[in-house]
Design a protein that fits this description.
3-stranded parallel β-sheet, 10 helices, single chain, alpha/beta, 281 residues, Rossmann fold
Amino acid sequence: MAKIIDGKAIAAKIRAEISAEAAQLKEKGIVPGLAVVLVGEDPASKVYVSMKEKACADVGIFSDEYKLPADTGEAELLALIDKLNHDPKIHGILVQLPLPKQINTERILEAISPEKDADGFHPYNVGRLVIGKPLFQPCTPYGVMVMLKEAGVELSGKEVVVVGRSNIVGKPVAFMCLQQNATVTLCHSKTRDLAAKVSQADVVIAAVGVPEMIKGAWIKEGAVVIDVGVNRVGEKKLVGDVEYAAASERASAITPVPGGVGPMTITMLLQNTLESAKRGL
C-alpha cells in the first residue's frame, strides 16, 4: 500500500512558518498585504475568495477584497489594478478567474505588476520560471514541488510524466521538474498511448481535470503519484484524475483527493505574498 502524502499536514506546517515570519515582519512595521479581486457572482469563485480571506487572517496577512459587479468593464478593472500596483500596503494582487466574457483575461493578467503577481501568471514571471530564476511560482505547481520535497522524493535523474498541459499547472510544473534535473514527458489529449507513457514514470503528476482518467493498472510499481485533479462525481463525491484505490496498490506514495494538493494551493499563495513583502525590506 502506498504512503499517503498528506497535503493538509504539510500545508499546516508551512502556514505555521508563514505566521511566524509574518509576525517578525510586523515587528519591523511591515504587514504583508494581499488584494483579491472578484468580478461577478460565480459561486465557486466566491467560495475560493472566502477561503483565501480566512487563510490570510489565520497567518497574519492583511487581505483586501474588491467585489465588482458582473457587468464591470475592462477599463474599470484595469484602473483598479493600476491603483493596487501603486499601493505600498499591497504586496500581492490576485484576480480571481474566470472573468466575465466582456473582459480580456490576458490583458488583465499582464496589467498586474510582475512584482505583485502573487499567482505567478504574468508573462514576465512565466518567462523567469522557464529560465529557472522565478520571482513568483504559480501556486499549485509550487505546492506540488513542496509536497514532493516534504515526502523525500528526489527528482534528479527520474522519469516524470505530467498529464495535462495547462498554463496554470501542467506546463509550469514540467519546467519546475526539469529544474530539478528530472527527465520530463508532458502528455495531453493528443498523446498516443498514454498508458505506455505513464507506465514508464517514476513520478506521475496528473492535472487533466477528467475523473479517474489515469488507471491504477498504468502506474509502475513503486512510482510516486501526485493527483492535482478535483472532480465532482454526482452530488457529493470528489475524485481526482487518478483511480485512487487501484493506484494505491502499486504506488510507493500518493496524494489523496480531497486533502492532497488542494490545501497547498492557497498556502503557496500566502507564501508568495510573504516573499513579496520580504523583498521590500
